Amino acid sequence: MRFLLFFSLFVLNMERSSGQISYDKLPKVELHLHLDCSLSFDVVKKLNPAISFEVYRKDFVAPLKCPSLADYITRATKGVELMQTKEQLRLVTLDLFDQLRADNVIYAEIRFAPLIHVAQGLSGEEVVRAVNDAVVEGIKKTGVEAGIILCTLRHFSEAQSMATVHLFDKFKNSHVVGFDIAADEAGFPITNHIKAFDYAHAHGISCTAHAGEAKGPESVRETLQFFRPARIGHGVRSMEDAALIKLLKDNDIHLEVCPTSNVQTNVFDKIESHNINRIYNSGLSMSVNTDARTISDVTLAKEYATLEKKFNWDKEHFLKCNLEAIGHAFTSKEKKVIIREKLIKAYKE
Fold first, then answer.
1. Is 87 marked active-site?
2. What's the pLDDT score for residue 231?
3. Is residue 244 within 8 Å of 46, Cβ to Cβ?
4. I need a surface site. Which of 129, 174, 217, 329 has the fewest CB within 10 A?
């Protein structure tokens, strides 16, 4: 017994010292993942055979540095164009499930804005139903558990935000689990969306919200005040305000951190400057996420390897982040228990 324990510790230390921990083999939870920003070349080629790999890399994948978040988001347009029919939505969703399985993600929350997929005549309800049906199919096919988060967008009108949140009325007891506000927070006031978040809270809909990415801690403060989310998408600029850090901790607000994306959108000039280590050490609840697997050209395994290399993170860091993620996931208590046990078993072995 002692020999086995010694050998296991020896292997783990060797992995740490050599930087060869196989993060692709460890189970993971991802809470911040945009469907329309995560199309693989395989599915793009299937949906439009005229798109070459070179064009795909140019139009769908962002450079290592973008001038701004607004520029970064323009890459999503090409994905949205290929997601306007029920079959297109199905194929893109199933493609993402294949990516998640390859990355050993065991639970994911996939978000998208239904109202940007109606250009060819689908209704918002038909869009959500197509994705929900594909999620059912993807879970059965891959074993990856998943929920769906519906997004309103910062530049939407109040009517569009209300139309989005009202879609929940049609999808009770489905895989639709949460409500979000996404897109560029800079330049768009929150006024148009307060009513939608009030409706969400009144009807027991779990909420997250993008903030503290394109704008500073004041964006997080107003988001907490008016939208009252349980989680903040990104939220990395919260660290600029000590009182805000305390507010987040006191209210157990979870931060969905996306390191590579934050560097690409110039929140940080380089990965070494990212404050993810400060967030972790502050005791704030946080998780590691890809944000946009195609636009950022990243997987969770790659994110973990980067954090190991740049900040000396190890399995204990990632286990804690994954446990925080499933603890704040918009899923049932029963599912949380099962996934938590899988995580602990895999990371402690």
1. no
2. 98
3. no
4. 174
Count of other CB atoms within 10 angstroms of residue 17: 8
Does position 102 have pLDDT exceeding 80, yes or no? yes
CATH number for the domain spanning 220: value is 3.20.20.140
Number of domains in the chain: 1
Amino acid at the residue 234: H
More confident residue, 55 or 186: 55
- Show the tokens assigned to 253: 């607000």
Q: Is residue 184 assigned to a domain? A: yes
Distance (Å, rounded) from C-alpha 308 to C-alpha 112? 30
CA proximity to 255, closest of 222, 284, 218: 284
Residue labelled with tokens 């099962």: 338
Summary mean pLDDT of the chain: 94
| Between residues 3 and 50, the one the model is more confident about | 50
Three-state DSSP at 302 gives helix
Q: Which residues contact 290 (CB under 8 A, 6 or more apart)?
A: 30, 32, 33, 38, 258, 260, 261, 296, 298, 299, 300, 303
Contacts 24+ apart (CB under 8 A), 233-237: 233/32, 233/180, 233/182, 233/208, 233/209, 234/32, 234/210, 234/258, 234/261, 234/262, 234/267, 235/211, 236/212, 236/262, 236/267, 236/268, 236/274, 236/275, 236/276, 236/279, 237/212, 237/213, 237/267
∠ CA 257-261-262 to the nearest 5 degrees?
70
Q: Specify whether the CB–CB gap between 255 and 279 falls below 8 A.
A: yes
- Supply the DSSP string of 175-219, one letter for each residue: SEEEEEEES--TT--SGGGHHHHHHHHHTT-EEEEEESSSS-HHH
Catalytic: which of 213, 256, 308, 324?
Answer: 213
* Domain span holding position 298: 26-348
Residue count of the chain, please give it: 349
In Å, what is the CA distance from 20 to each residue of 13, 15, 336, 341?
10, 5, 29, 25
Question: Looking at residue 185, what is its pLDDT?
Answer: 84
Model pLDDT for residues 8-44, shown as the tens digit of each residue: 444 444 444 444 578 999 999 999 999 999 999 999 9
Tokens of 69: 């978040």
- Distance from the first to the final alpha carbon of the chain: 14
